[in-house]
Specification:
The chain is α+β, with helices and mostly antiparallel strands. The chain has a domain of 111 residues. It contains four helices and six strands. Helix 2 links the parallel strand 1 and strand 2. Helix 3 crosses helix 4. 24% of the residues are buried. It comes from Neurospora crassa (strain ATCC 24698 / 74-OR23-1A / CBS 708.71 / DSM 1257 / FGSC 987). This is Phosphoglycerate mutase. InterPro entries: His_PPase_superfam. GO terms for molecular function: phosphatase activity.
């Protein structure tokens, strides 16, 4: 979360402050793996380093991704967990944020390329790149929300691969003995 907070504040911090826009931390947007560099720091530590960020909505499980913890299962490095987490963050925006938005307003989600690619959008993101999406209209709000990309297929900076990566394509099916592996 530290890297995304730094990116968010460097990119949008002054604008957010000037326009009274909250920066809200959300554990759902974290990186995929359970390696130490992708696991995160405690909220106590982060809130001291980033006092301008609202941490009140961060899941109490954060930063636990332990295979020994059933409550941390939603953060495990498996296809099932990452795909479900991607669906959950999209549903949260679609249900709680999008309906309240005024025309011309946007939600900015600063996250990690691996999660955005494999769990949320199915598109590649080069370092520092961005893509703009809208929710496809749907009558019944069941299942995974569908996104329609507004930016060009190479991303907003034009540096990303132009072919879709596909959702969940390179994620491990299961965790075995502390290692994530693909199963046939």
């Amino acid at each position: 979360m530290r890297r995304t907070l730094e990116t968010a504040l460097l990119s949008f911090g002054n604008y957010a402050k000037e326009h009274n826009i909250p920066i809200i931390a959300n554990a759902g947007w974290q990186e995929n793996s359970d390696k130490p560099c992708d696991t995160g720091s405690s909220i106590e530590e982060l809130s001291k380093d980033f006092p301008q960020v609202d941490f009140t909505r961060v899941d109490q499980v954060w930063p636990n991704k332990s295979r020994d913890s059933e409550e941390a299962k939603k953060y495990w490095y498996t296809k099932e967990s990452i795909m479900q987490r991607g669906e959950d963050v999209l549903k949260e925006i679609e249900a709680k944020v999008w309906p309240e938005m005024e025309d011309g307003k946007a939600v900015v989600a600063v996250s990690h390329s691996g999660f955005l690619r494999a769990g949320v959008t199915g598109w590649w993101f080069n370092n520092g790149d961005y893509r703009i999406f809208e929710f496809e209209e749907r009558e019944v709000k069941e299942g995974r929300p569908t996104l329609k990309q507004i930016t060009g297929v190479k991303g907003g900076m034009g540096e990303s691969f132009e072919t879709p990566a596909g959702l969940g394509g390179d994620l491990p099916e299961a965790a075995v003995g502390g290692l994530s592996v693909g199963l046939p």
